[in-house]
Amino acid sequence: MITNIEELYTVFSQIMDHKRWWNTDNKWEILLGAVLVQNTNWRNVDYALANLNEATQFLPEKILALDKEQLQELIRPSGFNKGKSNTIIGLLTWLEGYHFDLAQVSRKDFAELRKELLAIKGIGEETADALLVYVFDHSTFIADKYAQRMFEKFGFVSKGYKQLKSKISWPETMDTLKAQNLHGWIIEYGQVYLKNDELWQSGPLKNFKLRLSSEVD
CA–CA separation, 146 vs 62, rounded Å? Predict the structure, then answer.
């Protein structure tokens, strides 16, 4: 197990700006963005979100009232619009069962909530964890591609999202805000220093060492 996540957070906090990864307080916008960003970039997502905002103000009732073809057209800039429209409808229909009360959903047990999210078609491990951290105020490690590549630079090679996440010992001291910060910092740092080995060697984290427990796999 990787046991010094808090130490990594502290180092990041000394070298990174404390800016917010999602620059909005609208959790419905974040929820929709977490689905739309799958397999695309944020520029395309911004176009799709702008369309949704104009048409529905991100109100879940208004989105569910759209014809599926209308929704697909609104989110077309994000790509894979048919699949993503089905995921959005599935996610919002599930939330309708909670009367669209995000606070009520947030009070659910972490493991139970994560299981429910993963049962929605189109919601994978990364999207579920992003929703848990940014929408439902839980705390967990988001083991996305940037994290996988960064931890490989630190000396821990994983076979994908699930394996890296399973090897993280997540401290109780890592609250929701810290989980959000760490995720954002890993992406921002990775966008600069993970482009090639020369850039990695020029970065302030090049000598960071992961601390591994002696647990036998």
Answer: 35
